Amino acid sequence: MPHASLSREAVATHNKSDDLWCIIDHKVYDLSDFVDAHPGGSVVLEQIAGTDATVAFYNLHRQEVLQKYTSLCIGTVEGEKAEVIVPKPGDLSPVPYAEPLWLRPQFKSPYFKESHRELRQKVREFVDTYVTPEAQEKERDGSYISQELINRMAENDLLAMRLGPGEHLHGKKLMGFLPGEEFDYLHDLVQAQEFVRANARGFQDGNMAGMMISLTAVMQWMGNDELKEKVKEEVLRGRKKMCLAITEAFAGSDVAGLRTTATKTADGKHYIVRGTKKWITNGMWCDYFVTGCRTPKGFSVLLIPRQEGVETSLIKTSYSTTAGTAFVEFNDVKVPVENLLGQEDKGFIVIMSNFNHERFMMCCAVIRQSRTVVEECLKWSNQRIVFGKKLVEQPVIRAKLAKMISHVEANQAWLEQIAYQMSQMSYAQQSKHLGGPIGLLKSFCTRSAHEIADEAVNIFGGRGITQTGMGRVIEQFHRTYKFDAILGGTEEILADLGVRQAMKDFPKSML
Fold first, then answer.
1. What value does the mean pLDDT take over residues 381-395?
2. What digits encode the pLDDT tens for the residues 98-130?
3. Residue 46, CA atoms < 13 Å, CB-side half-sphere
4. What DSSP character marks residue 248?
5. What value, to the nearest 5°, has the Cα angle with vertex 81 and ends 75 and 86?
6. pLDDT of 1 higher than 50
7. Residues 166-188, mean pLDDT to the nearest whole number
8. Strand, helix or coil at 435?
9. In 446-477, which positions are buried (b, 16+ CB within 10 angstroms) versus exposed (e)?
10. What whole-number distance in Å separates Cα of residue 132 and Cα of residue 195?
11. Shortest CA distance to 92 belongs to which of 60, 123, 113?
């Protein structure tokens, strides 16, 4: 039936189970052939047959349900127009506090320029169009990222951008407009937070997170320039994948406790690597492993290609297996000495050198995820009817929302401040001055995530512990926010790091 203009009186006559129309947001839907397929059963639909079901629908469903079943819409009510805003790819959310302050049209920022705004627009369009649909699919079925999406990101230099500013971006026109030389840590913050909006925590790490924390070590510390360029090109073009393999069952934050060994052959041309690694993000499908090993007088880092003797098995964690989290075994793997990163026995600095950026990226992500949860709670509180009035009309709910909003806005402001300082400092200055502040921010924003997740589940009730439907974003966040509290350094260790770094510069005159 073509779309038509229909009167409310006409809709009211279609009020039987085999002839069932209803109105939702001024649009008319013919549900006659959908009754038996309705996940909530036929009785619910019979109760709203021939009526305006707008309030009842939004009390139970997300807007995306209507977008999924657009074929059931047969017309609009005479003289009326839809009121609910359906976002297009790249659009900003009009919900209060759904976007950082600098993206709200009524506010200004001393940090962000037009290039940051344009990058936000282009990356969001890309994520909404290509990343989110795949992310949601992979999060559900647990399969790994497609080569098609990897290629598309590589073609748009999005893989390269995720490593942060640097010479690897020079000479490129990022997203078709931004000179790579101008890409700063505020641009880095923008792209990181936009990718998180796919709302799929397992896929978020499955989307080349291993590359982000390992390729930088190769680019900075690989002594063999020819091999370095080869690996960099392979990975940034999406032809090869890599991960960081440091953590073991015996040692996480305690790197000194690693048991994987690298022993030189008699001719001095190879290392023989033997040991295991655990909880290695992307390990299931990577071609290269940047691996921490014990050597005779200390700790060394090797680039190990997947080969005979390298075995990976899947570890199931709280989020989807799409992340490819692996247990890795190195059974007498032969590695050329040219694959050493940095100096033998001095690998600690190789690993530590990338921690600031890794932790900065994790802060970007969990703060953006927290904001999305706040947006979901604001929308739900505004549409959920309880005891005859909106949930948001309850003072206790407003108090919860106020607490959540305050955590998110404070953390975003601190994050932007750090991003600006990173953009003004050399790498050496960042290492000296920002390790502590970034550690404190990561520790605090994951504590904030704990508070936000707890309040959000209480606001959503049973839906907040259900993996589908209205509360799916809340359920996933509550189930997975701890990844950011553990990976990259636990809250306790990073809080302690922040204070210890501060005390190094404590003035003696204040004793």
1. 92
2. 999 999 999 999 999 999 999 999 999 999 999
3. 7
4. -
5. 90
6. no
7. 97
8. helix
9. bebbeebbebbbebbbebbeeeebbbbbbbbb
10. 9
11. 123
